[in-house]
Write a structure and sequence with these properties.
It is flat and about 70 Å long. It has 176 residues and is mostly helical. It has seven helices and no strands. The chain is 52% helix and 0% strand. Among the domains are: 52 residues; 64 residues, Orthogonal Bundle (Arc Repressor Mutant, subunit A), CATH 1.10.10.60. Helix 1 packs across helix 3, helix 1 packs parallel to helix 4 and helix 4 crosses helix 7. The chain starts with a helix and ends in a 57-residue tail after the last helix. The longest helix is centred in the first third of the chain and has 21 residues.
């Protein structure tokens, strides 16, 4: 494959994924997304096939991930409304799609997520310093997603052992 074709397909694939990520709540089709990024549906389909799953799988995964997050975090939103928010106009279609993906109905998933959240121990919060830096990570801005350096292997001191006699001398018994 020509390098230009490869880079163009990658560009199409990434643009398609961006559109799916931003507009998954709308009725999206391969044709509509291809038109929006200025290519043919077949070219977009080839790009998806080369760099990931299909367009439909990408859209389905994005919608299900968003639905799971909403179910777990937004108790005030009814399940049927969550389905509409993520692009399913019919709650029965949303429920069957969700069950196919996660093995649970949306209501049962929410129940399990709430139960799990209730059993988790709260994590301690960090107090920001006046400069906005996180007190646990000096020198880094608050919200920085830089991983902390791993501590190097620290040598654990061993209990003191009796000194060895010089070569050629026998060890003397020690008095207890």
């Amino acid at each position: 494959m020509h390098p230009h074709t490869l880079s163009e397909r990658r560009r199409l694939y990434l643009l398609g994924r961006v559109l799916v990520a931003r507009h998954y709540g709308r009725p999206l089709t391969l044709v509509a997304v291809a038109r929006a990024i200025g290519t043919s549906p077949r070219q977009l389909q080839r790009a998806y096939a080369q760099f990931g799953d299909s367009f439909q799988e990408d859209l389905f995964a994005r919608r299900m991930s968003a639905a799971a997050q909403l179910l777990a975090e937004q108790r005030a939103i009814p399940v049927s409304d969550i389905g509409r928010l993520v692009g399913y106009p019919h709650s029965s279609h949303f429920a069957s799609s969700f069950r196919r993906r996660y093995g649970l109905s949306p209501a049962k998933f929410r129940e399990c997520a709430l139960r799990h959240a209730a059993t988790r121990t709260p994590t301690p919060t960090r107090t920001p310093t006046p400069t906005g830096a996180d007190s646990a990570t000096p020198g880094h801005a608050a919200g920085s997603h830089r991983p902390r350096p791993r501590p190097r292997h620290q040598h654990q001191p061993q209990p003191a052992s009796p000194p060895r006699p010089p070569p050629g001398q026998a060890a003397r018994p020690q008095a207890a």
